[in-house]
Specification:
The chain is of the alpha/beta class. It is about 35% helix and about 25% strand. It is built from 8 helices and 10 strands. It has helices at about 45-50, 75-85, 100-110, 115-125, 140-155, 170-185, 200, 225-230; strands at about 1-10, 20-30, 30-35, 60-65, 65, 85-90, 160-165, 190-195, 205-210, 215-220. It has a 6-stranded mixed β-sheet, sandwiched between helices. Helix 3 packs parallel to helix 5 (about 140-155) and helix 5 runs parallel beside helix 6 (about 170-185). It is globular, with a radius of gyration of 17 Å. The two termini are about 35 Å apart. About 40% of the residues are buried. The structure holds adenosine-5'-diphosphate (2 copies). One adenosine-5'-diphosphate binds near residues 77 and 109. One of its GO terms (cellular component) is plasma membrane. GO terms for molecular function: ATP binding; ATP hydrolysis activity; transmembrane transporter activity. Pfam families: ABC_tran. Keywords: ATP-binding, Nucleotide-binding, Transport.
C-alpha cells in the first residue's frame, strides 16, 4: 500500500507560476524515496502538498489512507500533526527551548502528553542522551539535525518528510543523518520522502523520483549506499 499517493497534482501560485503540472506518484509504506530535480522544478511544492502543509490547485493527496484534499483546514492540521513528521534544512529548532522540549513539542501541539521516557529513549538512541537539557545553540549542526530527526519521530508518524535535510551539513554529519533516516525506514518501518539535490544523499534512498518543470521526468532505484562507498 502507498503511505502517500498523489493523483494528477497541479499547483499554480498567485502570479501564475505553475509549480506542479500533473504529477501522479505513489510512495509505498516502509520505503525511503528521494525526490530530485533542478532548482525550481517543483520539489518543495510537491513535498508541501504531500505533507498537507499546502494545498494543490487541483488533484488529490492521500496520506496514510486519508484524503487530505477532501479534508478541511482544521482537520488537515490535526491529521498532519499526528501522522506526519518534518525535517528541514535549517533544523527549525526553537532556540529558547531545550533539546528535550524541542523533541516533545509535536506531542504538545497534537494535544498529547509529553512522553518524557519516550523522548529520552529516542535521544539516547541518537547519541544525544546527555544533551537533553542543552539549548540548540550548544550543539553542532549534525547534532541539531539529529534532534530534528528525534522530533520528527516522537509522534510515531506514518510518514517523515525531509526537505534538503543535509543541505547545511558537512559530509560526515550528512552521512550520519542519512544513515539514521535509513534506519527510520528499515528498522522502524516508517516511510521517508526526502527532497534533495545531492546525488550522494539520494543514494541512501531506495528509489529516486525525478522532477523537471513540475512534471515527473523519471524514476529509478538508487544504487545502495554501500555500492557508492566502494
Ligand atoms: P524546487 O523545490 O524544485 O526548487 P519549488 O517547488 O520551490 O521548486 O518551486 C517551483 C516553482 O514555483 C518555482 O518557479 C518557484 O519560483 C515557484 N514558487 C515556489 N513557491 C512559490 C510561492 N510561494 N509563490 C510563488 N511562486 C512560488
Ligand atoms: P502549523 O504551525 O502550520 O500548524 P505544525 O506546527 O503542525 O504547523 O508543523 C509541524 C512541524 O513542522 C512543526 O515542528 C513546525 O515547526 C514545522 N513546520 C511547519 N511548517 C513549516 C514551514 N513552512 N517551515 C518550517 N517548519 C515548519
Amino acid at each position: 500500500t502507498d503511505a502517500v499517493r498523489l493523483e494528477s497534482l497541479y499547483k499554480t501560485y498567485d502570479g501564475g507560476v505553475t509549480a506542479l503540472d500533473g504529477v501522479t506518484a505513489g510512495f509505498a509504506a516502509g520505503t525511503f524515496t528521494a525526490v530530485m530535480g533542478p532548482s525550481g522544478s517543483g520539489k518543495s511544492t510537491l513535498l508541501q502538498c504531500a505533507a498537507g502543509l499546502d494545498r494543490p490547485t487541483a488533484g488529490r493527496v492521500f496520506l496514510d489512507g486519508t484524503e487530505l484534499t477532501a479534508t478541511g483546514d482544521t482537520a488537515m492540521t490535526k491529521f498532519r500533526r499526528l501522522r506526519a513528521g518534518f525535517i528541514f534544512q535549517d533544523y527549525n529548532l526553537l532556540p529558547s527551548l531545550t533539546v528535550e522540549q524541542n523533541v516533545v513539542l509535536p506531542l504538545r501541539l497534537a494535544g498529547r502528553r509529553a512522553d518524557r521516557a519516550g523522548s529520552r529513549a529516542v535521544l539516547e538512541q541518537l547519541g544525544l542522551g546527555d544533551r537533553m537539557r542543552d539549548l540548540p545553540e550548544r550543539l553542532s549542526g549534525g547534532q541539531r539535525q539529529r534532534v530534528a530527526v528525534a522530533r520528527a519521530l516522537v509522534t510515531a508518524p506514518a510518514v517523515v518528510f525531509a526537505d534538503e535535510p543535509t543541505g547545511a551539513l558537512d559530509l560526515r554529519s550528512a552521512g550520519e543523518v542519512l544513515t539514521l533516516l535509513r534506519e527510520v525506514v528499515h528498522t522502524h518501518g516508517r516511510t521517508v520522502v526526502m527532497v534533495t539535490h545531492d546525488p550522494v544523499a539520494a543514494a541512501y534512498a531506495d528509489s529516486v523520483l525525478f522532477l523537471a518543470d513540475g512534471r515527473l521526468a523519471g524514476e529509478m532505484r538508487a544504487p545502495t549506499a554501500d555500492a557508492v562507498a566502494e
